[in-house]
User: What shape does this take?
Amino acid sequence: MAKQFTDQMNQTIRLEEIPCRIVSLVPFQTELLCDLGLDEKVIGITKFCIHPAHWFKSKTRVGGTKQLNIDTIRALKPDLIIGNKEENTKEDIESLKEISPVWMSDISTLEKAYEMINQIGALTNSTMESNEIVSAIKLEFTKIVHTVSSKSVLYFIWKNPYFVAGTNTFIDSMIRELGFENFCQEERYPELKDSSDKQPNYIFLSSEPYPFKVDDILEIELKYPMSKVVIVDGEMFSWYGSRLKYAPSYFNELIQQLTY
Assistant: This one.
């Protein structure tokens, strides 16, 4: 029996039956599909979908998140494509809608991440599994030790030029979940302006999408001599799927590192 589903961009798709040939266009949702037990149903992933490792080795790769191979996806004959507003281009998504129903996520808060997980569970007839994942994540987030109230963080995502995470982003919501304030109050991902006399308490250099290394710390410290600069695991701050269940434990270790 056909069912209709409304995605997080308020677009409605119609599925004639439970999908059994799924293409995932973003890494965090690929990992979620695995944790939902959909190994045999996912037939295509991107070259950035590194989790789980055995899928990365065995599944057909359909290009990068912003450079999808439309012909490869068409040849797979999917009955459902799952994408994300931030990660995929509008042009690619419009092309893919001619091939298969496309369900899109749009996430800037933890609550929206929970919603996405449950909605993909409903799409794929795995609501029990998705409910269990959300419950497990919520439990872990109650364990965050909040000891850094009112401390500010500037979160770097890119170099040459430098870009940082601003408001209305999932990274911003994670910064606030930890009890920090986001030093950048511009929306989305602005290019970094010249440093001023006012400096953040902490600077986080993310491991992705740009892979900041230890050598980058000195360069940033010269710009922000009053700030403590550390490299952080970008997956924990920006993967809003089932990987969230590992984030609170990592956050507690990070907070301990910063405060001792």
